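Retro notes
What went well: the complex prediction finally ran end to end.
Inputs used:
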Amino acid sequence: MRFIIQRDHLLQSVQDVMKAVTSRTTIPILTGIKIVANEKGVTLTGSDSDISIESFIPREEEGSEIVEIKRSGSIVLQAKFFSEIVRKLPTDTVEIEAGENLQTVIRSGKSNFNLNGLDAEEYPHLPQIAEDRVFSIPTDLLKTLIRQTGFAVSTSETRPILTGVNWRVADGQLTCIATDSHRLALRKASIEAGGEETYNAVIPGKSLSELSKILDDTTEKVEIVITDTQVLFKTKHLLFFSRLLEGNYPDTSKLIPAESKIDVVVNTKEFLHAIDRASLLAKEGRNNVVKLSTIEEKSVEITSNTPEIGKVTEEVATESIEGGELGISFNAKYMMDALKALEGSEIKISFTGAMRPFVIHPVNDDTTLQLIVPVRTY
Amino acid sequence: MERVQPAALKMVKNSILKGRVAHAYLLEGSRGTGKREIGLLMAKSMFCLTLVDGYKPCEVCLNCKRISHGNHPDIHLVEPDGLSIKKGQIQLLQEEFAKTGVESQKKLYTIVHADKMTVNAANSLLKFLEEPYPGTMAILITEQLQQILPTILSRCQVIPMRPLSPELLEKKLEAAGIDANKARLVAQLTNNLEEALEWSRDDWFAQAQKIVVELYEVLKKSPLEAMTMLQEDWFGHFKEKGQIDRGLDLLLLFLKDLLYIQLGTTEKIVNLGERSRLEQHALQTSGRRLTGQMAAILDSKRKLQANMNPQLLMEELVLKMQEGSSFV
C-alpha cells in the first residue's frame, strides 16, 4: 500500500474515527486504526467493538486531488501513535507506505516515521450493507430524536435491554421509545423509507449519544440501515456502525394511558423553573419527590417537604385545568428531564389518577410524549 | 494433543459432529494438561470457516488465525485480575453479551481459573449461565474442580483432563536436549513442557537443588546449625512463595528417593546425580522417620498456600525434621 494524502483531510478523518477507539479493550487489534487504500480513495476505520466509525476520503473532491494512490492495500496502525504523528507532521502532504512484514513508513517533509503495523485481515469485519433496505431522515431531526429519548434509558444493568432505545419502523414512520421502567420517552417521526419493510431494533443508549456527538447540525440526510446484528448511520463520508441489544423490548403500548381524566395546560418554562426550585429542597430527601396539587381549576401548587431541611411552596398559574381536583407526587428530576426534552412553549399534562402514570406532551403536537410514574407518598 | 488427551478430544469431537454442543463446558485438570489448548480448539471449531472432516479447525482460515492471536471480536477471555476474578469482570461480560455479536450470531467466552471467582462473581455468573442468550457458549477452565460452586458445576458439562505422565514429559525433555538426570527431576515437578524446559536451563534451579541437599545433610550432622544455614543460604535463594514451594517439592523428592532405596525400587529414583550420596544416607535413617519428615513437608506446603510467614514456616519445618522431633 502506498499513497500520498493531504494532511488536513487525513487529520479530520483520524479525529473522527478516534472517537470509537478506546485504550481499554481486550482485543489487541482494536487499539489500531485500519487504513484501506483502493482506486476510489482511502478508508479509515476505528472500533471498540460496540461502535465502529468508518471515514472515507475520496480521491478527489470538487476537482482538486486529495489522495494520490500509488499502490492499493491495507494496514492497521496503533491509533494512539498514528493520531499523534498525523497531528504533528511538518508539511501539508503525507506519504504512507506499508511494505513487507507490516512495516509502515510515514513521510512528511523531512521527517520519517517507521511504524510496526498489524495485519488488516485480522480486523473485525463490518457487516455488508444491502443498499435497498435504507431509510433516511435529516441530521438535525435525528439529533433531536436522540436528545428527546436517549436520556430516559436505564443505567442499571439488571435489565440490559432497557439500556437501549427501541426503534420501530412501520408505515413510513419511525417510533423511538426509551424507558427505565420509572419513566418513558417516546418520539415519532416520519421517514423516507426505501421499501415497505418494518424493523424493530434496540440500539444501545451509549452508541446513540456517541453518534449525536459526531453529527453536525445540518439538514443533510442521514441514511439508516438496520440489519440483524448492527445498525448503520451513513452520512456523506462517515459510516457509523453500532451493535444492537439482544432480546425483545417490552411492549410499552399498554403503559401509555389512552384516556385522561384531568388535563392541565401550563407554560413550559415557568413550570420547569418552579419544579427546579422545589427540587432544591427535595434533592436531599429520597426519590427527589415534589408534590403537585390543583387549586380551584386555575392554578397548581408545587410543594416539597423534607422535615429535616425545610419546606417550599410555589403557585404556578395555568392556562386551563379540566376534570377536577388532584394531588400527585413524582420525581422532580424525571419531570425536569422530560420538560427539557419537550419542544413548544406550552405543554399539556394528562392525569388519570394520583396513583396512575401521567403523560406530558406539547399542546397540538402528538409526535412527542413523556410518561412519568408517580411516587407513592403517605 | 490427540496423544495427550484422547478422551477429552473425543468428547468434544463427538458433540460437534452430532450437533449437540452444550452451552457450557468445564475443562478440569491439573496444571499443564492442555486445558487452554482444548478450549482454543473448541473455539476454533465453532468459528472455523472451513472445518476439516466436519470437526477439526483448519488453522489457516481468517477466523482460526484471529482466534489464535486473540483478535476475534466475538470471543472473550476472562482471567483473574490480581488474585481473583471480580464481580465487575463478570458484569462487563454480561454487558458484552447483552449486545448482538460483532460479526456473527455466535459468541463464546472463556473463564480461566474459574475457581478463583469471588463468591459474588460466581453468583452473578450463575444467573448468566442459567439463561444463556441463544448462540452463546461458555468454557470454564479450572485446576480445582472442588472449589467451583456446586450450582455452577451442575450447569456445565465437565470434561476431565488426564494428568500428564511424568515419563512422557521426561521423554519430551530428553528429546529437547536436556540431560537425562535433570529431565527426570524436572518432569516430577511440573506437567508443563515449557516450564520444564525453562527450569532445566535455569541456573537458579541447579543451585536450588544443591541447597536442598545441603539442608538435609546439615540437619543430620548438627541440627543446631540448620537454623543458621536457613538464614545464610535458604532465604537468600528462595525468596518468593512459588520458589519456596518448589524448594519444598525438591526436599520431598529427595526424601522419596531415600525411601525408594530402602524399599529396593531403585529404578524410580529421581535425583540420579546424587545417587551415591543418597545410598549412604538411606543406610542411616529409617522408613518411619522418613515418612514422618515427609508428612511435615506436606503440612508446610499446605500452610504456605495459606500465606504463613515463610521464615516461621521454614524454621518450624526444620525443627520438626530434626532427630527426636515432635517437641514443636
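What we learned: Chain A has a mean pLDDT of 88.
What to try next: split runs per interface for comparison.
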